[in-house]
Write a structure and sequence with these properties.
- By secondary structure, the chain is of the alpha+beta class.
- It folds into two domains: 138 residues, no CATH class; 334 residues, no CATH class.
- The chain contains 21 helices and ten strands.
- A four-stranded antiparallel beta sheet has the order 4-5-3-8.
- Helix 6 runs antiparallel to helix 7.
- The longest helix is centred in the middle third of the chain and has 47 residues.
Length: 656
């Protein structure tokens, strides 16, 4: 179900895969599933493929509305208050930017509720059914249903291809509202961040080009410090203004922090009941204040201790296992004279590192599973911090080696150019070629299997149905921690590593900002094509910020202040005596001033625009007024129902 300008249209948004073998053995179960889906108001279309049959499912607006009402999905109303959805009062709820009543995340939740909510009511021949068991989950466990996956909406997909993926003339301008409506808040926020970052790169790119190409004569020694100060201030302002834009996006998409008496604290779907406190603590809440406080504090510090232990294990593993390997690569790179061999060595190094990092990622996931985190997003953030530590070491330790040990700026500049070029080529191949190769291989296997079943070796077998083509496409999954993250993990990691590279070594290679700007313009279009053409439609996620990545970018800005100060010291202290002369002292003072400015800008520039803050305060005030009036009515009703002696007793109690 999608809408445009208030008009609703029924679209098949979910598909289930049924092997033909399962249809022969358990056809009655599949027929029962289809019947139950139709009884619940859904539209089911059966499509026969080469080796499987597909059940395409669509839900009209009324069916989705009833499911949302059963799930008690809270939605913003025109009064500025978020209330549980009711189908009868649907006109009071604010619609999405594309005109539909529900977001893609809400629709997918409703589909899951409708499909997985079908319970067993019959006995099977091959295995015993349990009364009240979810039919689809049982069919999945028995192999009757392979999987359920979201489908692309062809109309909207083609529209996004024209206005976004293939529209190169717009450079960094993107239809963010359409991206949010189609893919969800998480992907919409990421592309908004990527577009804003690329736009802001224009200033340091032009400044870096001037510093790199123009000879300032006697003032040349001031060019790099001025460029260094400008880039740090630029980065700090960019991150602060991104917070403002993110807040504006959430306000425009009606994604709010909600506080209500019936739900405690809730943000983006996380409620009090979902917090990972033991059930006995929740059960005894408020009985004995002192014991309750002590129990919660003990549990809180136990969770911190577990996370701290895992972080120490990861850090020690990086130092003991990865550091020697990185230093060995940096040393070999320094002694090799041939540029071609250096490029080959870097490519081999990147392949080995990919395997080692995936191994480290698997270990990190196992450690995270032993931690106590509040939600899946918190677990995902913990994974991001741990895996970024691995990538930080492998990406930058070799460069630090060239800076501190050899102090060879020509070699350092060469390393940066090679890393930027090779990493860009590597990520482009991974993003574009790998999904297409997987898709082609799956189609080839299906065709070959069909030919073997038919016993014919000639003739070309065509895949006619769109749903089967969607099934053969790879999922938008992360290379590490698939159960916690999706493909945004790899895209965000690539962007963070690029930012660290150009910022931490800005004084060594100012032209890197221009290369990054060109790379990001291409990245926007290639990522869009990847999501719309070569991959399945991603599962929606509730998170509406870039999460842990923002803290990582803040960390990289602080690191860049330190590393560029060291670069300037190495550059101006040619003799290597490290004396605190006026020039070196000025660099140290400049470092401390920049650190103060970086943290000071976070106070000077508000994180929310004034209109967002005013709207939020207005909504909270209206919610409080409504809850107070409702509470007064309920109290008045209770007092009216009391007998006269009970009313006198209540008045005496209030006077006391």
């Amino acid at each position: 179900m999608n809408g445009s300008n208030g008009e609703e249209r029924v679209v098949h948004e979910v598909a289930m895969v049924v092997p033909k073998r399962a249809l022969e053995e358990e056809g009655d179960c599949v027929e029962f599933l289809v019947t139950e889906l139709k009884k619940r108001g859904m539209v089911v279309d059966r499509v026969v493929g080469l080796a499987d049959e597909f059940l395409k499912v669509a839900a009209p607006l009324e069916t989705l509305g009833n499911a949302a009402e059963e799930l008690h999905i809270r939605k913003p109303t025109r009064l500025g208050i978020d209330l549980p959805f009711e189908m009868q009062g649907s006109e009071a709820f604010i619609r999405q930017p594309d005109g539909s009543l529900f977001s893609w995340f809400e629709r997918f939740r409703c589909y899951q509720h409708l499909i997985y909510g079908i319970q067993m009511k019959l006995d099977g021949r091959e295995f015993c059914w349990v009364a009240g068991e979810s039919l689809l989950r049982r069919l999945e466990s028995e192999g009757v249903i392979k999987q359920m996956f979201p489908l692309h909406d062809e109309f909207k997909r083609k529209e996004l291809l024209q206005t976004w993926a293939l529209n190169w003339w717009n450079f960094t301008n993107q239809p963010i509202d359409q991206i949010y409506s189609y893919f969800g808040a998480k992907i919409g926020v990421y592309f908004s961040f990527l577009g804003m970052y690329t736009q802001w790169l224009i200033f340091p790119a032009l400044l870096g080009f001037i510093v790199q190409m123009v000879d300032f004569g006697s003032l040349q020694f001031l060019a790099l410090p001025i460029f260094f100060v400008s880039t740090i201030l630029w980065a700090a302002l960019f991150l602060q203004f991104w917070k403002r834009k993110n807040a504006a996006l959430l306000a425009r998409w009606q994604i709010n922090c909600l506080v209500g008496p019936s739900q405690g604290y809730r943000f983006l779907g996380m409620e009090w009941s979902s917090l990972p406190f033991p059930k006995e603590l929740i059960k005894n809440l408020g009985n004995e204040r002192s014991k309750e406080k002590e129990a919660y504090q003990r549990y809180e510090w136990f969770a911190y201790r577990k996370r701290f232990r895992n972080d120490v294990l990861v850090i020690m593993s990086i130092i003991c296992l990865q550091l020697p390997f990185e230093l060995a690569y940096a040393h070999i790179f320094e002694i090799i004279t041939s540029d071609i061999i250096k490029y080959v060595l870097t490519a081999i190094y990147l392949l080995i590192i990919q395997y080692l990092t995936r191994l480290g990622g698997k270990v990190s996931v196992k450690l995270i599973n032993r931690e106590i985190n509040e939600s899946v997003e918190y677990r995902a953030n913990s994974l991001i911090y741990k895996v970024f530590g691995l990538y930080f070491m492998q990406t930058y330790i070799g460069i630090f080696y060239h800076v501190l040990l050899h102090r060879n700026f020509m070699t350092l500049r060469q390393v940066l150019i090679q890393r930027l070029i090779i990493s860009q080529v590597f990520w482009t191949l991974m993003d574009g070629s790998l999904p297409y190769l997987k898709y082609s291989y799956r189609k080839y296997r299906a065709r070959t299997k069909k030919k073997m079943e038919d016993g014919s070796s000639t003739g070309k077998i065509q895949i006619a149905s769109r749903v089967e083509k969607e099934y053969f496409k790879p999922t938008y999954s992360a290379s590490i921690g698939v159960e916690l993250e999706d493909g945004l993990f790899d895209d965000s990691l690539e962007l963070a590593l690029q930012f660290g590279m150009i910022m931490m070594f800005a004084c060594a290679f100012p032209l890197a900002f221009a290369l990054a700007a060109v790379s990001n313009v291409m990245e926007i279009r290639t990522n869009a094509l990847k999501l719309l053409v070569t991959l399945r439609r991603p599962l929606p996620r509730a998170a509406a910020t870039i999460g842990a990545w923002l803290n990582i970018w803040q960390f990289l800005v602080v690191m860049s202040i330190c590393t560029n100060s060291v670069l300037l010291v190495c550059l101006y202290d040619q003799e290597g005596k490290w004396k605190i002369e006026p020039g070196l002292a000025a660099i140290l003072i400049m470092e401390h001033v920049l650190l103060l400015l970086k943290f000071g800008l976070s106070r000077l520039v508000p994180e929310e625009p004034a209109w967002v803050r005013a709207s939020r305060v207005k909504n909270v005030t209206q919610a409080q007024d409504m809850y107070c009036k409702q509470l007064l009515r309920s109290i008045s009703g209770e007092l009216a129902s009391l007998t006269k002696p009970e009313q006198e007793q209540q008045q005496d109690y209030e006077r006391f």
